[in-house]
Design brief:
Blueprint lengths: L1 E5 L7 H8 L3 E4 L13 E6 L2 E6 L23 H13 L5 H13 L5 H16 L4 E4 L9 H11 L4 E4 L9 H6 L3 E4 L20 H7 L2 H9 L5 H7 L5
Helix pairs in contact: 2-3
């Protein structure tokens, strides 16, 4: 069984969903420390003037001692109206915007106090639209006590998985011998970002998933995400011989 994990993410990029799609199980790491200027609470959309950051404001007091799960949204800022207006004005003429506009408008009308609640609600919807059926777990619902590599091994054992998918940066810290001793295969995701028809000129990669959903059909979306990248079937074949 293949496991991957990542921190919660607001309007994630395509590679986030590719990692989930090639896994049997995925753990949302909501009990790790919140990192300022990460993609946990922000991402970019495309506009006629280039990429635009949409950031959910966070109450940062004492954040060095807090987990992502406990991070509160700072609602003294009018972020919901700004995000919805930015999305609406820049995407209202895209071919498939109307398929998602009711959901997104409702999201930005709701009251949100907790960042993880917001990302969980939105990403559950996106996974459903993409027809990704990977089982999703939250670290806070799993009794864990380890950190870093030891946490990954602990999660693999608790969830009965023998293969773990790291992101590209995992090469800088993952110790193959340590995972080998624990009978866990490891794979490093090297995501080749596909191109597709976007609004305006000059393709911009690595932006929010909604850009893809607004511009291509639901039937095409997952195929585009996995295009020119490893799929789950191929990943299984890589490790047929064991660790």
């Amino acid at each position: 069984m293949i496991l991957s994990a990542h921190q919660p993410a607001y309007l994630p990029w395509l590679g986030y969903f590719h990692k989930i799609a090639i896994s049997d199980k995925f753990v949302v790491l909501d009990e790790v420390q919140f990192e300022k200027n990460s993609f946990t609470n922000r991402n970019r959309i495309k506009t006629s003037n280039g990429a635009l950051w949409l950031s959910v404001p966070i109450k940062m007091n004492g954040h060095m001692d807090k987990t992502i799960k406990t991070m509160e949204i700072d609602n003294k800022y009018n972020w919901k109206d700004k995000h919805w207006k930015s999305i609406y004005l820049n995407y209202k003429k895209t071919q498939y915007f109307h398929h998602y506009s009711d959901f997104l408008e409702d999201v930005y009308k709701r009251e949100w106090s907790n960042l993880v609640d917001l990302t969980e609600y939105m990403n559950k919807f996106f996974l459903s639209e993409l027809r990704i059926k990977t089982k999703i777990y939250y670290q806070s619902n799993i009794e864990t006590k380890e950190k870093k590599q030891e946490l990954i091994v602990e999660l693999c054992k608790k969830l009965n998985c023998d293969t773990f998918v790291f992101g590209k940066l995992g090469r800088s810290y993952a110790d193959r011998s340590y995972f080998g001793k624990n009978n866990i295969n490891i794979y490093f995701q090297e995501y080749n970002h596909p191109t597709y028809n976007q609004a305006w000129d000059d393709f911009i990669p690595n932006i929010a998933i909604i850009d893809l959903l607004f511009n291509v059909s639901k039937d095409e979306a997952l195929d585009i995400i996995t295009r020119e990248n490893i799929n789950k079937k191929t990943l299984y074949k890589l490790f047929q011989g064991g660790v």
